[in-house]
Amino acid sequence: MSADLFVCSVSAFESLLRTLQSETAQLWTHAELEEHLEEAGRQLLRQLMQDHLDLRARREEEAVRSGGHRRVAGLDGRLRPWRETAHARWLACLFGLVRVERMAPRGPSMANVHPADAALSLPAGRHSMGLRRLAVTEAVRGWFDQAQAAIERRCGRAAPPRPTPGSPAI
Question: 32 vs 79, 122, 150, CA distance in Å?
Fold first, then answer.
């Protein structure tokens, strides 16, 4: 079951291998090779992360179906008797955007609880801790635009857009 969920990652890796073995790649300079590997490597890592998150979501759903789930209470201490699948959120990480699917234990007139968010130690908001750490490191070096450009060079377009007056920070 878990190997099937990584088929996209395997395909991305095999595609990268074919590219590196191609006649075209034989003509690249080291700089062109490095640039290609940086981008394709980031995409491969993003796909590996996505496939791993999908595996965790599948296992969470299977545990509920098999009766192996534990009772879940919210911060209010009240039990959430129902389980809904396919609750998702986006996460901008060092490799790009990934989608986190998870269960949502819930109850009447109660807020949803997402145990997978706690298990992954996901922060509130869209940006991963790694991306936040990188943003802080880059921000202390200079202007916002310079920091954003440095993050985009390393991570692709995972960084937040320039804040506007009145918009919340990262």
Answer: 56, 36, 19
What is the crossing angle of helices 144-155 and 129-139, to 10°? Answer: 140
Three-state DSSP state, 130: helix
| pLDDT single digits (tens) 144-169 | 777 777 777 777 765 445 555 665 55
Q: State which of 64-73, 81-90, 156-165 shows the largest mean pLDDT.
A: 81-90
CB 83 within 8 A of CB 104: yes
Please give the pLDDT value at position 164.
57
Treating both helix axes as pointing N-terminal to C-terminal, what angle do 7-21 and 30-65 enclose, rounded to 10 degrees? 170
Alpha-helical regions (H) of 22-74: 23-26, 30-65
Ordered alpha helix ranges (H), the chain:
2-5, 7-21, 23-26, 30-65, 115-120, 129-139, 144-155
Residue whose C-alpha is closest to residue 128's, from 82, 160, 162, 152 = 160
Q: So what's the pLDDT on residue 170?
A: 47
**Neighbouring C-beta atoms of residue 87, cutoff 10 Å:** 17
Pick from 41, 58, 45, 46: nearest CA to 5: 58
- By CB atoms closer than 10 A (0-12, 13-18, 19+), residue 122 is middle
Mean pLDDT for 117-132 is 93
